[in-house]
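Reopening: structure tokens for the FE2/S2 (inorganic) cluster complex, inputs below.
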Amino acid sequence: MIETLTRIPVVHYSNLKGRTGYSIKIDNQEIALFKVSNGGVYALENRSPHPKGGVLSEGMVSGDYVYCPVYDWKISLVDGRVQAPDEGQVKTFKVEIKEDIVFIIV
Ligand code: FES
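Re-run output (same inputs, fresh job):
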């Protein structure tokens, strides 16, 4: 099967604040975009894996993790994995930054 990937420009890198989450809608998909304190940018599906999950873009960012705003689950921004003792995984998206433009690959 051939998968077609699309690079979608979403925001200027210089407009992103550190340790902050942003909500972006691409087609019908809500994506949470985060800039962490070392300058890295990560994109995840904007929904907590918790059964009654909230939106991750409103969570608190610490290092390479976001803490879910509702149940305080700790989720890796790098691979989307929920940290123990909780479990689950959030879908992640590849991010590219070129000349101040942040692209999400969907
Ligand atoms: S609703 Fe997210 S684990 Fe919280």
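The mean pLDDT is 94. Residues 43 and 93 are 5 Å apart (CA to CA). Marking as resolved unless the reporter disagrees.
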